[in-house]
Amino acid sequence: MEYLLNEQQKLVKNLARKIAEERILPVRADLDEREEFPWAIMKDLADSDLFRIFVPEEYEGLGGGCLDLCLIVEELSRVCSGVAVTYAASALGSFAIRQFGTEEQKKKYLPDIAAGKSLTAFALTEASAGTDATALRTTAEKVTGGYVLNGTKQFITNGGEAEIYTVIALTDKTKGPRGASAFLVNKGTPGFSFGKKEKKLGIRASATIELIFRDCFIPEVNIVGREGMGFIQTLHTLDWSRPGIGAQAVGVAQGALEAAVDYARQRVQFGHPIIALPAVQTILADMAIQVEAARALVYAVARTVDSGAKKITEESAMAKVFSSDVAMEVTTKAVQIFGGAGYMRDFPVEKMMRDAKITQIYEGANEMLRITIAAELRKRRGRRE
Amino acid sequence: MNIVVCLKQVPGTTQVKINPQTNTLIRQDIKNIVNPFDTYALEEGVRLKERYGGKVTAISMGPPQAEGMLRESIAAGADQTILLSDRAFAGADTLATAYTLAQAIKKIEDYDLVICGKQTIDGDTGQVGPELAEELELPFIAYVNKIEETTTGQMRIQRMIEEGHELIETPLPAVISVVKEINVPRLPSLRGIIKAKDAIIPVWTAHNLDVDPSMVGLDGSATRVVKIFFPERVRHGEKLQGDLEDQVASLIEKLRKSRVI
Description:
The complex is a heterodimer. By secondary structure, chain A is α+β, with helices and mostly antiparallel strands.
């Protein structure tokens, strides 16, 4: 399919594929098995300037857009979603700085993020606040010169490994949606520690951990934007990042499709490769259609984001929901085509199936996002848009 | 520290096919790659530059399309490149190649070290490195797997020998050839690729170099490739007859006869 990528986008895509095939492929099963954080690969990505893509040029980045990021995430995820999400989470964790940060914050943090010296993490979820972000309990109490954070964040991607955390905490419980604010917290800040490291079904190379704040003092200069803007910044952040999850889903689905075709070509039953069986052919064809449709939607939404469109909630939710459902379906079918072998950990498709599942869950559960899309439909229709 | 790295573009080995009629390489549709051993040479050059300063010059003799490979070398850290390309250079054996490279390197003048891969994967001779050192009248150290230390005008190098390693001190400038154990070449970076895209790749022809026309290309070659062919594979099996004892006796006799035992 011709997606009319520009020079930089082609270059970025090819480079990400090269890294994925040369550096990630040989170790992916091991990373998955041992649940090991992929530091060596993060270094490769950093040396190849891929962290520069999501940082503006004035802060030593390459100023790429949402589509550039999606291309990288897709290529990495085609080989290993655990590595892809580790990379993507750093783009997510630094979004607030890029978008809402002060000049000082940008100068202080972005060059190291661009160089891949500092990974970042975005910390919203809590035990009581998953889909319902308004149920947050982590508080930020105003004191002289700054704020004091108390509370526990849960399921934080890149937690423990990242240097810089964008943490959403309540600055005023009485103000509802205007009561939360975003703070930049450095690893090693007194009162900030790490709790339980989660053991996961999939994306096991990525780190998912609890963040614990006990009377953790954050200087005033580390608040992102104005006090009370935390929820709005969060919504913007997720609108921007959801196409990336779509790309992650497209990548893992593409990886599963390729593996399934390769296997069907060489697996002989009844004297012929099973790809000669119409039953297998139709499954493969459906997989290919789904993957391509998901990719087209993700790229189109990423381009919409890059066009500077203001309202992208609906579109970005669509890209995430559709692609993640495709990823689950396609990876499940890939396992089916592999048959018994597909169920075994010696073959890559069971990992892909495990990895795909999370894309339907995080950055907004698909059910919740469907409700969001429906609400937008209703509003737009109401406005006769 | 200024370093010259010699690169060669070679056909990607996985795709090489030989025309059975003419016994020559079918070069159409073959993707050319950098000789893999040369990528270690380039990486080592770039690492030395990063440690000690200076610049890395990548040099290659080859057809005009070798330009792409030199561009890639910029993405991988080379500061400048030179392509030696001229019809007069064509058909060169290792001697003529080494002579031509040496004339170009002499023209570069300001260099402390020349690094080559230990051999190419197409010619497989491993001769150009030592011949180049001879032409330049410089010390040559082959199969280097570690550069321990570099001080002004001096370098401590570890090389692989049959059983173990040899530690050598050599004055600089020198020519070395490296093995793949020396490093893991880096992946290209986006900024490097962008820089490479706009880079100018100078092409030096016979006119730019102070060369004796009778010493370059086919005319300057001491050897000629007469024929490339697949060795005929002759294999035959034989089934031993009789009971087990007879079979063993006959097998031993056959092995003795063929001097295996």
